[in-house]
Design goal:
heterodimer; A: about 375 residues; alpha/beta; Rossmann fold; 8-stranded mixed β-sheet; 5-stranded mixed β-sheet; 16 strands; about 40% helix; B: about 280 residues; two-stranded antiparallel ribbon; 11 helices; globular
C-alpha cells in the first residue's frame, strides 16, 4: 500500500505527474486503452491504483474506456481516462453522455499530430476545437492546458475538483512534449492539497429530483445503490430525469447544462499574465507553446518590442472578457499554437477587429521555436 | 359505498415508474413480456433491490431502464456493457442487469459483449432478440435470418446471422440460456438463476416485432407465437454449436452453460490486492 499523495521532490515526466495528480485528487477508477503518447499515464496508474484501493481496467477500446469511466463515476468514485487523438475521436459520443447526464469525470488528451494516425510520437495542439465542439449538440465544457509536469500535477487535481463541483467532464489538453518531458515535480503534503467531491442529496429519497439544480446551477448527485431509484438518460430529460421530448424540455435542459458553466466563469477561468502590464503586443498561448512564447517575450523585449504573454490555463470556457479588455489598450494579438489556427480564431472573434490579430502556428511535429515567434513579431510590428 | 372504479394494482407496480406509463412498445411487441419476466425475477430472486441497477443501451428494448423503478441508466448506443463494467468494478456490491436489444448488444456493441464475457464481469445480460432494428423502423440486424426482408434488405437479407448463445459461450460466459417470450415462466426462472449467479450471465429472449419485422415478412405477432410454440424444443445442455436459429428445422431453447469461474474482480483482487503479501510462487 502507498499514500495517495506521494509527498516529496520527484524527477518525472508530465505523463507520470498527471497520474500522480489523479491519485492525489482521489481518483479510484481508471479505464484505459494504450495509445502513444498517453500510454505512460495508463501504465503508471495501472500499477499504482490498486495500491490506494482503486481499480484499473484496460478496456477493449477508447469508447469502452470512457463508458466504463462514466459508469464508475455514477457508482460514486472519481474516475479518469487518458488518450491521444485517435482515441479522443472515439470518445466523443460518450463525452456527450457525460455532459447530458452530468457525470463528473476527467479525460486527458496528450495531443499528437493528426489528422488520422498522423505523427504518433510527435506532439501538436491540433485537437483544441475538437475538445470544445467534438461531441454533437451544443454544450459547455471545461478544458485545461498545462505547460509543465509540475503544472499537470496540479491541473489534474483542479480538473477533478471542477468536474465534481460542476458535474461535467473536464478535459486536460496537454501535448506530447509536456507528456514526455521530465522535470522536477514537487508534491506537497496531503493536507496542502484541496480536493472537492460532488454535491450529494439530502432529505426524502422519494421526493428527490436528480436534475433539479442547486444554488450554483448544479444538482446534487445521487449515486447508484443509495436507494434514490434515479433514472439517468442521455435523452433530453426533465428535473426528474425522465425523458421529455418537447421543445420546452430541450430548452430547459440546455439552459441548465450551459448555465452552470456560463454563470460561474469567474470561478472556472484561470489565466496567467507575463509582462502584460505595459505590453503593446499580446501573445496568447497555452501548453508547450506557452513555454516557447515565454522565451519569445523576453527576447522581443530585448529587441525593443513591448510584448507580453497571456497564458491560457483554462482554454474553454474561453477568457473572452479578458481578451476584450486587452483589445482596448494594446496594438495587436499573436496566437502561438501547434496547429494552423484554432485558438487564433477564438482570439480573432473576441478582439472583433479592434486591433489586428495574427497566427503563429505550424501543424505539429516539433515545438514552436521562439526565434520564429520573435521574427514574426518583428515583421508585423510595423503593421501594429 | 364501495369504490367501484378502484384501480387494481399490478403486482409489479412497485418496480415500475408508473408515472411513465404508457410505454412506447407497439401492440404485439414481446419486449413488455420479457421486461415483466425480468421484473418478476428481480423480485423473486430476493436480491437487495436497493443495490440493484438496470442499464440499457439504445433501441426499443433499451427503453427498459426508463420504466424500472430502480437506479437505472440509459446509456449510449452499444455501450451499456462497458458502462456496466465500470459501475460494477467501482462498486462490486451492486447487482447489475443489462437489459438491451440485439442490435445494441451485438452489432454496435458486439465487441464489448465478447470482452465482458471473456473477463467474466459479474453482470446479468438480458438480450431481447427481435431480429431487426425496431426503433428506427425495421432495418437488417446482425441477427436477421437469411432471406428476411427489412427496409435495408428489400429483396431479402443476404448475410448470415449470429448464433448468440454460441458467441456468448465461445467468449467465456458462465451462464447461457435462450427462451422466447412465450416461455415466460422458464424465462423468469432463468433470469432469476442468472441474477443469483456470480459471473457473466447471458439470456437471449426471442421476441416478435410485428410492426417492423412481421409486417414486411407477412407474419403476425400471433403467427410468431405459434412458431414459438410449435417449432421450438427445449434441450438443456445442448452444445451451443447447434443453436442456429432456423424455424423450418426447429429452434432449440434451454440452458446451455452454467459454470463456476472466478470473476474479473476475484482475480483482480487476488493478484493486485492480496490480503496477505503474496508468496513468490503464487505471484508466478
Amino acid at each position: 500500500m502507498r499514500q495517495a499523495v506521494l509527498t516529496g521532490e520527484h524527477f518525472i515526466t508530465g505523463d507520470v505527474a498527471c497520474a500522480e495528480g489523479a491519485l492525489a485528487a482521489g481518483c479510484l477508477f481508471f479505464g484505459g486503452y494504450p495509445i502513444t503518447p498517453a500510454t505512460e499515464i495508463t501504465e503508471h496508474i495501472s500499477s499504482q491504483l490498486p495500491e490506494v484501493g482503486g481499480t484499473f481496467i484496460q478496456m477493449e477500446d477508447e469508447i469502452a474506456a470512457l463508458a466504463a469511466v462514466i459508469g464508475s463515476s455514477c457508482a460514486g468514485v472519481k474516475a479518469m481516462t487518458a488518450t491521444s487523438g485517435p482515441g479522443f475521436s472515439l470518445m466523443m459520443e460518450n463525452i456527450g453522455l457525460a455532459i447530458c447526464t452530468e457525470t463528473p469525470c476527467v479525460i486527458v488528451n496528450v495531443q499528437r499530430s493528426g489528422p488520422s494516425t498522423g505523427l504518433p510520437t510527435q506532439g501538436a495542439q491540433g485537437d483544441m476545437m475538437q475538445a470544445r465542439w467534438g461531441s454533437h449538440g451544443h454544450y459547455e465544457i471545461i478544458v485545461l492546458s498545462p505547460s509543465s509536469p509540475q503544472e499537470i500535477f496540479y491541473q489534474t487535481i483542479t480538473a477533478f475538483n471542477l468536474s465534481e463541483i460542476y458535474r461535467l467532464p473536464v478535459i486536460i489538453m496537454t501535448d506530447e512534449m509536456i507528456g514526455h518531458l521530465s522535470e522536477r515535480v514537487i508534491i506537497p503534503k496531503a493536507r496542502a492539497i484541496k480536493t472537492v467531491s460532488r454535491p450529494r442529496p439530502k432529505g426524502r429519497k422519494d421526493r428527490f429530483k436528480p436534475f433539479k439544480p442547486g444554488p450554483n446551477g448544479v444538482a446534487p448527485m445521487a449515486i447508484a445503490g443509495e436507494g434514490y431509484n434515479i433514472h439517468v438518460t442521455g435523452l433530453t430529460h426533465d428535473e426528474r430525469g425522465y425523458p421529455d421530448m418537447t421543445v420546452e424540455g430541450q430548452d430547459e435542459m440546455m439552459s441548465r447544462l450551459t448555465g452552470k458553466v456560463r454563470q460561474n466563469l469567474d470561478d472556472i477561468i484561470s489565466t496567467e499574465a507575463y509582462r502584460l502590464d505595459d505590453a503593446d503586443i499580446v501573445i496568447v498561448s497555452y501548453g508547450v507553446s506557452a513555454r516557447t512564447s515565454l522565451a519569445a517575450v523576453d527576447e522581443a523585449r530585448k529587441q525593443g518590442i513591448k510584448a507580453g504573454l497571456l497564458r491560457l490555463i483554462t482554454v474553454w470556457p474561453f477568457p473572452e472578457a479578458q481578451i476584450r479588455r486587452l483589445a482596448k489598450r494594446v496594438k495587436g494579438f499573436f496566437t502561438v499554437e501547434l496547429n494552423l489556427g484554432q485558438i487564433h480564431l477564438e482570439v480573432q472573434r473576441c478582439v472583433a477587429g479592434i486591433v489586428p490579430t495574427f497566427l503563429i502556428g505550424h501543424p505539429g511535429g516539433t515545438i514552436m521555436p521562439p526565434e520564429r515567434v520573435v521574427e514574426t513579431l518583428r515583421a508585423r510590428a510595423k503593421i501594429t | 359505498m364501495n369504490q367501484v372504479n378502484k384501480q387494481i394494482k399490478h403486482p409489479l407496480d412497485d418496480l415500475l415508474r408508473t408515472d411513465r406509463i404508457p410505454h412506447i412498445w407497439c401492440p404485439g411487441c414481446g419486449i413488455g413480456t420479457a421486461f415483466s419476466s425480468c421484473l418478476t425475477a428481480l423480485k423473486s430472486s430476493g436480491i437487495d433491490l436497493k443495490k440493484t441497477v438496470m442499464i440499457s443501451g439504445i433501441g426499443c428494448t433499451g427503453r427498459g431502464a426508463g420504466y424500472v423503478k430502480l437506479d437505472s441508466y440509459h446509456t449510449t448506443h452499444g455501450r451499456a456493457i462497458p458502462f456496466a463494467t465500470g459501475m460494477k468494478l467501482a462498486n462490486p456490491e451492486l447487482n447489475i442487469v443489462v437489459f438491451s436489444g440485439d442490435g445494441d448488444l451485438f452489432a454496435i456493441g458486439g465487441n464489448h459483449f465478447i470482452h465482458a464475457a471473456r473477463r467474466n464481469v459479474d453482470l446479468t445480460v438480458v438480450c431481447v432478440n427481435n431480429f431487426n432494428y425496431g426503433m428506427t423502423g425495421g432495418q437488417v440486424a446482425a441477427t436477421t435470418p437469411y432471406g428476411i426482408k427489412t427496409t435495408t434488405t428489400t429483396k431479402g437479407n443476404s448475410e448470415t446471422p449470429f448464433n448468440l448463445p454460441l458467441l456468448a459461450y465461445a467468449s467465456g460466459a458462465t451462464y447461457v440460456a435462450r427462451w422466447t417470450i412465450l416461455h415466460a415462466r422458464d424465462l423468469t426462472e432463468s433470469i432469476e438463476e442468472a441474477l443469483l449467479k456470480r459471473g457473466f450471465s447471458f439470456i437471449e429472449v426471442l421476441s416478435p416485432c410485428p410492426v417492423n419485422y412481421g409486417r414486411r415478412n407477412k407474419v403476425s405477432a400471433l403467427d410468431t407465437l405459434k412458431l414459438y410454440q410449435e417449432k421450438t424444443i427445449i434441450k438443456n445442455r445442448v452444445h451451443p454449436m447447434e443453436l442456429d436459429i432456423d424455424f423450418e428445422r426447429g429452434v432449440i431453447l434451454g440452458k446451455f452453460v452454467d459454470e463456476e469461474k472466478p470473476t474479473f474482480m476475484d482475480r483482480y483482487d487476488k493478484i493486485y490486492r492480496p490480503m496477505e503479501p503474496m508468496e513468490e510462487e503464487q505471484a508466478l
